[in-house]
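Re: beginner question about structure tokens

> Can someone show what the tokenized structure looks like for a real chain? I only ever see the sequence side.

Sure, here's an example I had lying around. Input first:
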Amino acid sequence: MHSLKILCVLSVLISALTAGTVINEENMFVEQVYKDYELAPGDTIQPRIHVKVFVGNARISGVVQGLLTVYAGDIFIDSLAVIEGAVRSFGGEVHCPKNFSGNGEIVSSNLKGRSARDFFWKPQENILENIELKQEKKNVFHFYAR
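And the corresponding structure tokens:
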């Protein structure tokens, strides 16, 4: 009976420590962050990890092998950073040093007015390509609060 109580306490403690931080989603472990996120030098986002930053900015000085997505915030990439996976910003800007090189994907999508701007960084060419996509007026939806 005593070992059953200890087992129950340990399972509750482990579930309380991991609740809301790691969710298995399509073979990826998702970590949700609701504040500024900093990947310090020496830190790594592993290949099967997807970090989602919902409120705040992300500063990257470490290694990204997985996926980092920032919603409505900016991404600041340090010259020490190594991007082997993907870094994506939806509704914000990506600030990257001019001499930055890596093997990963850096995408910034920002909706302004009736246009969507996508910035794709292609490591094989080592250039920053700016592609502006214009949306048709019929595809734009307006929502008004009452």
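Each token stands for a local structural state, so reading them left to right follows the chain. Helices lie at 2-18.
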